[in-house]
Amino acid sequence: MLLRARALKNVGWFPTNTLTEDWSLGMEFKVKGWEGRYVKAYLCMGEAPLEVRNAFQQRSRWCKGHFQIFFTR
């Protein structure tokens, strides 16, 4: 994800009150009227959990983070 410094400043920088800060940041951009664009290039590589238990724990954190955002807005 590429971000404009001006957009980050406008939304109050990176959120620290949730487990899913990337989703929260995207929501703040949308609320403030910023738009996203698709960049057709690999800028970095992500890693996914290899074991089912770790994947479940990751999805559980995401779910908790989404609820944090939902109930604090």
Give a quick summary of the entry.
This protein has 73 residues and is mainly alpha-helical.
Q: What is the CA-CA span between the terminal residues? A: 24 Å
What average pLDDT do the residues reach?
83
Q: Gyration radius, to the nearest Å?
A: 14 Å
Q: Which secondary-structure class do the elements indicate? A: mainly alpha
Shape: flat
Sequence of secondary-structure elements: HHH
Fraction of residues in H or I helices: 40-55%
Proportion of residues in β-strands:
under 5%
Spell out the blueprint of helices and strands.
Blueprint: H1 5-11, H2 21-31, H3 52-72
Detailed description of the structure:
- The protein has 73 residues and is an all-alpha fold.
- It has one domain (5-72).
- It has helices at residues 5-11, 21-31, 52-72.
- The longest helix has 21 residues, at 52-72.
- The model has no long low-confidence stretch (mean pLDDT 83).
Defining traits:
3 helices; 73 residues; mainly alpha; single chain; flat; 53% helix
